[in-house]
Structure formats: structure tokens, C-alpha cells
């Protein structure tokens, strides 16, 4: 009897232990993403599920917010002492985040495989002052899209390789009555205009800053704005471009009203979709042109990265999650939605199938991505440049004076 009672008590003790002591200690990571991106919410969840299956001791709680709320959510959480372990960040924020110690410097975690395997231009997404504050994740740049049918009717055998050739081809198209305004841009007083301007600055070999001070008011920065104004005043550019954002550009191009458009990767598949577009099957894409003697192509970095916050209580697990989400295996599995950061992915048939023309353009464009100004005062600088572009297009100031004023109002 005593022996059987002892066994019952022992069994109860073991049962209690198994109920109260987990098989492993679970770490919970909180990650912040944006609701609209190259990767959909469902895709991010699927990627994350794959990570947690491979790492059963880690749980990841995902939060999605609109792009407009991404920056403020990150900063507010930081001010309150935590909240997120991993955050998605835009290419224009690393300087501010580094200055305010929002993100961990992960330079020593970057492996040789990462250094050699990731496209060089992609690294500018996460770098500031020679340090890396995350891994590039969403790769994006602006390409030159063109209407193959219009160019063929105009007798143009190949899309332009330089910005001067673009103007010349546009004039031929306009003179032959094939398009009233052959070129369309997103030049509204918004970040979109800065992206187009940056593309041209990269073509002309300009610099935004030198020794922390504005340098865009001379040399390539000035040449870029002069090109924009000349294109606008020539009548070759759609006059409404000064009020257009990227979706307006897509609408005009898809309606067959423009021969050329500068826009992001996403427009390629939408403009080729018969349900969306009147020009499906006629859409060509090449890298944005260069300037003879200065550049072969031009490109703005419109990418985003994943970083670990300085307030994370689980930086090692957070880094493992970032490394998984940005890995070549994960990115190749979703290459139809966002192009990979890995150079060798562009030789993989599973990645390139069905989008060969875009991939060919990406090989050059993504490798040449040029960053917008890297400064903690980016928001002030961007606003000043947006105003300079608008005033120049409207004829309220010449480019020299507009950029000089922008430099004075940049806060630098």
C-alpha cells in the first residue's frame, strides 16, 4: 500500500512538473513592417512561418502599418523604451536612426558571403558613415519604360542610352504626331520628385553633400535640375508632370498617352496586364539613361532594409530573423514580387522566367543605385529641394537661384 501511494505521489509530481515547465524557453520578437510593399502581408507571414518552423524556440509577432506611419511608430516605440525588436526602414532614414541610436550597428555580423554576394548598390540602403545598420531587403529603383509600338512607328530602332538621346527621340515622336507629350514624370512637390531628381544627379555625376554641406547647387546637381526644366519647357514632357505622383505616371503611360516614363519596378507587371493596361505586351523597360562621358546608366536607391533596434532584449534572435528574411533562399522564393538583393539570383532561371526584360534592366540599374542625401536632417533637406524643383518648373526662379535657396534652407 505504501509503495503504491509512493508511486501515485511520484506520478503526480512528475505530471505537475511537465505542466508547469515548458520543453524549451520561448523568445518573442516584435517586428514592424509596412502594409503596402513589394512583399504582401501574406508573403511576410509566410516567410516568418518558415523562420519559426526552423527556429521553434522563437515566436515572431508581426505588426503592419502604412508607410506614412512606419517612421513615427519606430521612433515613438524607441522613446518609450522598446516595443519592437526588428523594424523595416526606408533608405532615407539610416542617418537619422544612427544619430539617435535607434538601430544597432551590425557591421560585425555581416559575413563574407553577404559582403560578396549582395549587389554593391544595395548596401547603400543600410549604410551611414561607413557602418551597416541592417540588411537590405526590398530592392527598388526607377527604370525607363517605353512604348515599343510608338518607337517602332517613329522609326526608332532602340530605346535611348543617354538623356540627350531621350530628348531627341521624344522630339521625333512629337514631330510625327505620335504623342503630344512623349515623356511623363512624377514631379509633384513630394518625395517622388526627389527620386527623379536623384536619378539625374547620379547620371550627371553630382553630389548632394560634401563634408556635410550642400553641394547640389553646383556641377551635377545643377545640371540635373537644368535638364528637368529644359525637358518641361520644350513641350516634350507632359505639363501635368509637375503635379504627378507615380500612380499618375502609370495611368498616363498605360493609357498609351506617353512614349516614355520613369517609374519603379512595380509598373512593369501592371502595365503589361491586359486587365489594367491599354499597352499590355508593348511595354519595354531599360535602365534609366546615362550622360555621355559621365555615366552609362543612372539609378536612384528606393530600397528598404531590416534592422535590429537598440532597445531589443533579444538582439541575437532578432539578427537571426533579419538574416533569414534577407537570405537568398527566402528572396528567390518570392522573386516575382520583389527582386532579390543577391547578385547570383539574376542568373537563376527560377527567378528570371517570365520577366527576362526587367531582369536585364535590373542587372545594370540595381548595381548603380545612388542614394538620396544621407543626413540626419533629411526631411528638411528634401522639403527644400522639393520647393526648388517646383519653383524652377513654374519659372518662379532659375535653377541656380532655386538650388542656392534650397541649400540655405536645408538646415545644413
From TrEMBL:
Signal sequence segment: 1-25
GO cellular component, one term: periplasmic space
Record's protein name: ABC transporter substrate-binding protein
Compartmental location: Periplasm
Keyword terms, alphabetized: Periplasm, Signal
Pfam families: SBP_bac_1 (PF01547)
Lineage, highest ranks first: Bacteria, Pseudomonadati, Pseudomonadota, Alphaproteobacteria, Hyphomicrobiales
UniProt cross-references to InterPro entries, sorted A to Z: Bact_solute-bd_prot1 (IPR050490), SBP (IPR006059)
Gene3D superfamilies attached to this UniProt entry: Periplasmic binding protein-like II
Similarity remark: Belongs to the bacterial solute-binding protein 1 family.
Amino acid at each position: 500500500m505504501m509503495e503504491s501511494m509512493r508511486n501515485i505521489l511520484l506520478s503526480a509530481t512528475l505530471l505537475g512538473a511537465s505542466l508547469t515547465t515548458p520543453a524549451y524557453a520561448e523568445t518573442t520578437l516584435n517586428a514592424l513592417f509596412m502594409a503596402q510593399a513589394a512583399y504582401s502581408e501574406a508573403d511576410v507571414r509566410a516567410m516568418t512561418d518558415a523562420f519559426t518552423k526552423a527556429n521553434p524556440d522563437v515566436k515572431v509577432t508581426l505588426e503592419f502599418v502604412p508607410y506614412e506611419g512606419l517612421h513615427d511608430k519606430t521612433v515613438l516605440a524607441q522613446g518609450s523604451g522598446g516595443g519592437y525588436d526588428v523594424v523595416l526602414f526606408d533608405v532615407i532614414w539610416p542617418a537619422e536612426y544612427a544619430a539617435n541610436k535607434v538601430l544597432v550597428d551590425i557591421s560585425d555580423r555581416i559575413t563574407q558571403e553577404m559582403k560578396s554576394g549582395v549587389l554593391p548598390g544595395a548596401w547603400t540602403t543600410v549604410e551611414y558613415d561607413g557602418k551597416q545598420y541592417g540588411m537590405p531587403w526590398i530592392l527598388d529603383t526607377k527604370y525607363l519604360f517605353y512604348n515599343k509600338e510608338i518607337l517602332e512607328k517613329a522609326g526608332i530602332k532602340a530605346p535611348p542610352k543617354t538623356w540627350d538621346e531621350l530628348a531627341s527621340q521624344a522630339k521625333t515622336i512629337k514631330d510625327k504626331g505620335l504623342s503630344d507629350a512623349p515623356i511623363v514624370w512624377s514631379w509633384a512637390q513630394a518625395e517622388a520628385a526627389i527620386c527623379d531628381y536623384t536619378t539625374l544627379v547620379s547620371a550627371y555625376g553630382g553630389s548632394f553633400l560634401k563634408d556635410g554641406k550642400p553641394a547640389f547647387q553646383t556641377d551635377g546637381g545643377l545640371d540635373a535640375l537644368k535638364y528637368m526644366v529644359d525637358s518641361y519647357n520644350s513641350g516634350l514632357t507632359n505639363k501635368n508632370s509637375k503635379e504627378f505622383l507615380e500612380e499618375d505616371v502609370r495611368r498616363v503611360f498605360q493609357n498609351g498617352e506617353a512614349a516614355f516614363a520613369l517609374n519603379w519596378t512595380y509598373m512593369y507587371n501592371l502595365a503589361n496586364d491586359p486587365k489594367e493596361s491599354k499597352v499590355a505586351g508593348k511595354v519595354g523597360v531599360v535602365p534609366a539613361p546615362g550622360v555621355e562621358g559621365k555615366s552609362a546608366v543612372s539609378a536612384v536607391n528606393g530600397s528598404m532594409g531590416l534592422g535590429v533596434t537598440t532597445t531589443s532584449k533579444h538582439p541575437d534572435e532578432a539578427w537571426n530573423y533579419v538574416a533569414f528574411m534577407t537570405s537568398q533562399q527566402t528572396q528567390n522564393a518570392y522573386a516575382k514580387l520583389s527582386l532579390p538583393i543577391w547578385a547570383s539570383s539574376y542568373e537563376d532561371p527560377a527567378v528570371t522566367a517570365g520577366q527576362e526584360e526587367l531582369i536585364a534592366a535590373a542587372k545594370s540599374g540595381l548595381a548603380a543605385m545612388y542614394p538620396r542625401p544621407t543626413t540626419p536632417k533629411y526631411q528638411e533637406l528634401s522639403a527644400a529641394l522639393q520647393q526648388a524643383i517646383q519653383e524652377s518648373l513654374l519659372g518662379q526662379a532659375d535653377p541656380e537661384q532655386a538650388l542656392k535657396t534650397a541649400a540655405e534652407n536645408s538646415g545644413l
